[in-house]
User: Fold these one by one.
Assistant:
Number 1:
Amino acid sequence: MVKIVCPNCAADLDVPNAPIHTCEYCGTAIQVSQMVGPEGKNITGEKVTEEAKNTYVFKEHFIIRSQYNGSQAQNLMEDWIVKIPGAPQDFESTATITERKLKFYPIWVGEYKSSSQYAGLDNWPSFSKPAFDRPGWYEYVSYYKKEERGTVHREYQIPLLALHKTKIPKYLRDYNITTTGKEYFDIQHVKELGGDIIDSVFSLNEAKQTMYQGVIQRQNSEIYKEVTQITSRNDNIEERGVYYIHFPVYEFKFTYGKKQYEAFIDGSNGRIIHIDVPISTRFRVITLSVGGAHAAAGTGLLISGLSVPSIAFFGIAAGIGILATGLVFILLNFRRGAREKQT
Ligand SMILES: [Zn+2]
């Protein structure tokens, strides 16, 4: 931890020695690494000049508001669970919510306009030896390298979840966050909902470098659609804006029948990011017995179909069908979880 004074509201802060920290009093995104510096000296007391403030504070700090408070998010989860086949209908009264947290996760978003001039080689076909019996056909096709030039113009919006991969809950890693509704960061909103703010583990510069690489990679794959080998290129990448955005995720932990489950809900739109779905005992008993009976009957038919030639076709076809139905019932018991489709 390091002691700093918030460059905006002058509050004394004791913060982790991480690149960026959101002041819990005024919501300013403080570039701690700029204030503390490599020699680890703390900035205290003295009034910060306007110039220093510009380097200490990152102004493009936004929030995606949560449209739901904690109990509303919990209702969403409970309503969703009872609609899933096999989930306990008595969930509300028999499950115990052990944790309900609203976390504001950090994401960097960079907007870029880029044009890449390239020269490269592409494979062109060369035809030889006209086929004597089919006009317009050739017996041999070979390929040779031919130089091609062009320019790829693209605009990109690159998102970068601002945490180390291992620190991001698994279900969030490939979740598309909608950042179009961003507003300037508002600490009051976070406080009203009792949310926790999580800050970036990357400094502004690190984030910019990674996103820049993202642009280069995307341009690469565009160029490789045209040529198989790049011989020279000239990239012109214009940074249109870089934003630091906090977005809301409700995280639940609950127990049902002695087992632990978890759920993640996007607070900005109520979408279910992931729910571990408990399966009710009643459902388990029915599907396992019905599934087992089908599987046994199907297997029996299949065996007799294979061994008694006169009923072979019926036995095998029906056997497989009934066996498959049985397996579907049984497999319903092994689902790990559910999520809402993203469009
Ligand atoms: Zn402050």
Number 2:
Amino acid sequence: MRQVITLLLCFFSTAQVSAQPDSLLVSKLYEEALGRGECYENLRVLCKDIGHRLSGSESLVTAISWGEHLLASYGADEVELQRVNVPHWSRGTKAQATFKSKKEEGLLRITALGGSVPTEGMLTAQVIEVKRLEELEKLGESQIKGKIVLFNRAMDPLMINTGSAYGGAFDQRSDGASTAAKYGAVGVLVRSLTHALDTFPHTGSMTYREGVSPIPAAAISTVDADRLHQSIQADPTTQVSMDMDCIKYENRDQANVIATLRGNDKQTGEHVIVLGGHLDSWDIGEGAHDDGAGIVHVIEALRIMKAIGYQPRHTIRVVLYINEENGNHGGITYAEQAEKNKETHIAAIESDSGGFTPRGYNTECGDTLYHALTAWIENLEMYGIHQVKRGWSGVDIRPLKPQTTNLFGFIPDGQRYFDYHHSNRDVFENVNKRELELGAASIAALAIYLDNYLP
Ligand SMILES: [Zn+2]
């Protein structure tokens, strides 16, 4: 009998929570995140005990198992692993470069771009500097053949949105090697995609176009890119030597981690709202902001919902995607399987912009939801959330777009994100506990809002 009474009390207290007005429910989320939060400690474990976790690596295997067990321990109704075939590449043990002109010589701090071929020993060639890919066409094979091309266009400092500035300089990294190879270049150096002026090279994805013979590609720190620029200005015959021993392995099967909180409404319980981030990271630094923060945000959102006794109307899924950085096979596989299984996805939220102070959400949703959200967000004013903007949601959830346009990207302050992004500086110490916790609560708040608003 006592058990029955306890169960009934549990039921009523849970029902009360669900029926409370928005602002009271939201304050409970923030109280749980800030007063009893676990995301900061979870991030410490992910960064310090497991470390960086590139697709195909053993550390990603460990991280997948960590995520699976953590989500189960927080009371998810089910946790499953979804097989994903991913590329497996290693930067090897060497990334050395020097320059030499008539007047001076020195070290250059570089790191291979993800997927680069090795140099096959020391590669030495004259270096030629360009700011834009189009310049290569003008220079032509006669001036490029046999040389190393330095792509040295900085991210635009006048753009307030750093993500847009990153996007504006991105083609050098993604397509620089293929474009330069077309004109006979033997290697490329790409100015690191960061506003920071420092000595840390920032890696990132690149692809080789079909029909072009691949040439080695490395990121160079902004300080060294400036130094090399000065050397080339003073002596156009400046030479660069670079040595990288990257290795490409066979693809490997790894897994997305999927945790489910089942919806309690007969009509809508089967419909899915997804919260996700990406578990893989680049293999330098610790993947703390990118995207350890997003991973612990969404895990914490699930923990908070359970802790305050929230019972979702729809099915809430937390997905730890893999392979966002170099292929997005995690996001693509998830969307393909959802379609194949005839699941109904009604919304997806991604956190992949770092663990900084929350500002709001980007969305690709339709007008009705957008206007409702704009009105609701006033409830979050006291938590520092002001923005609902139309814009990019996230790489991992984008493949779901044919199934739902209700896609959301969590937007924290972005001014420092690219100081750390894809570099040795992306470590746990550079994430602020309180900012991280506010982010987790902000994501839980949006998820609960959508759960209540959407039919
Ligand atoms: Zn990321």
Number 3:
Amino acid sequence: MKTTGILLFRNDLRLSDNATLTAACAEVDRLICIYCCEPISASTALHRPQTLSDHRQRFLFESLEALDQGLRGFGQHLLVLKRPIVDTIAELITQYDVTHVYSSVNAGWFENHQWSVLKSRYSSIIFQQEHTHTLFEPHQLPFEIEDLPSSFSKFRRVVEKNLQASPIAGKVTKMPPNPIVAKEYWQVPHYDELSSPLCSGGEKAAKYHLEKYFSSDLPSTYKNTRNGLEGMDYSTKFSPWLSNGSLSAKTIVSKLIEYETHKTANESTYWIYFELLWREYFQWYAHHHGKTLFQFKGLRPTVPNTSFYAERYQKWCQGNTPFAIINAFMKQLVATGYMSNRGRQLVASCFVHELNLDWRYGARFMEQHLIDFDVASNWGNWQYLAGVGADPRGHRQFDLKKQAALHDPKGEFTAKWQGSPITINLDSVDIADWPL
Ligand SMILES: Cc1cc2nc3c(=O)[nH]c(=O)nc-3n(C[C@H](O)[C@H](O)[C@H](O)COP(=O)(O)OP(=O)(O)OC[C@H]3O[C@@H](n4cnc5c(N)ncnc54)[C@H](O)[C@@H]3O)c2cc1C
């Protein structure tokens, strides 16, 4: 009997270093490659946005289009369906006598829940997942995921001395045919109005950027420039491609090692690795803490002393707070789909500590807008800054005035994004009277 597989692409939108794709191509006679843009309903994923910003959608669709083009080079193609994942896979299983379902391991609780539902519903089908989003695999880690170190520093100490990233997955040379005829199932929407997209989606664009970055001298000054606020050069800008898997973390590390071997190895090049370890920590943190990643009290025994104030929240989203630099960051985010790490730290600190808002609404807004949204990095960092996550200090409030003076001393960034505070009063009407 012929075997038929479904490959559910999620945050692994690439052909190279994709162990899931390699396994599927080696094991089945026919292969259906799909991606589901599923509507997220409030009942299934509370505090997750129900719509994505135009920038996020554009970046995603460009990445999917690039993946489809890559697959077509092997006689395959990608079906992009605007339908719920579980229903779609269930229908395909019935229609095409599916024997195998493949997907990459995902750090999100919701995504894992869907996988478990499918697995339990179809016990005679082989469900297989590979690790494509992290540097390491669980069997390499010197602890069980349940015993993940409680802070990043402890994690780093254990990991960086003892471990090497697992090898890059073998190249796919041949793909099984797709039993579903290629049609124009989907079209990349055109977002002509987008003001200034930071970068284009897809594996080709990712590789181009990777090569360009490591053929420049930027890696050897990264540590000194990484707190910049504007432009492509002060930090690596790998995150948009990393987040949807157009680029793998292992590929970046192998390029970094090449750079260190042939060009320069210094504190800055080490610091790129150090930041990738932060990413790695948050991935395993999300795996370990599951649903808790989205809970108000996070890892703490009691809920924070913050709440949801509609007017303050709206002012923060629109860049209309009493803090000029915060307004600039928020306008930058909405206009481009990206914000620097420093910006993210400051707007999150402002959200929680100055505006006393429930951190989950801030995390959700970033999820809606960031082209590099990653469930583990976003929600893990928000928990950290809200003092309910992996920060051993438990409280991290930035002095916004000092930070503005340090990182935007001439006010150029603030002026560019028209950050000047429009509002002095945070609450113009009584909170109870604000229309929701
Ligand atoms: C509130 C908040 C929300 C965030 N949300 C996201 C998110 O949704 N997606 C995302 O990829 N990052 C997120 N980050 C982390 C960080 O801000 C971005 O990874 C970084 O700004 C991306 O730009 P870059 O690639 O130029 O980073 P670089 O400074 O060049 O760092 C290199 C890589 O290291 C990783 N990295 C760096 N800092 C962090 C960090 N603090 N946590 C996890 N990984 C890190 C990223 O993969 C990044 O691409 C968030 C940080 C904060 C404070």
Number 4:
Amino acid sequence: MKKTSAILWQDAQHQVLFEILDLIAQPDAGAEVLRQLHDYSENHFAMEEHYMLAMDYPRTTDHIRSHDQFREEISSLLSLQVDDPEFRAVVSTFLTEWLTRHVLGIDKDLEAFILASDLK
Ligand SMILES: [Fe+2]
Ligand SMILES: [Fe+2]
């Protein structure tokens, strides 16, 4: 039987997160895109964390700590209540770089673990 090389929900959700981050950089985006990023990323992190806990994934603590960093960044951004397009562009670049490292690093490790398990 052919083995799947990716987890569809995880890939699709990462794609949406990168799209929202692109949106944040658009001058006419408006402040509510940060709220959208907050809600979507929380949804995504909760799903990954659900799998980690259900599978006894060995790097759960590190991975949740990494998600918590992103959560903290977004919370502090939301509390600033700044609606400046240039500021949002900087935020978008910073968070896109963060997410790229996360997706290519620890998320890949989780993906491999899920694919090797019976829970996929
Ligand atoms: Fe993750
Ligand atoms: Fe992820």
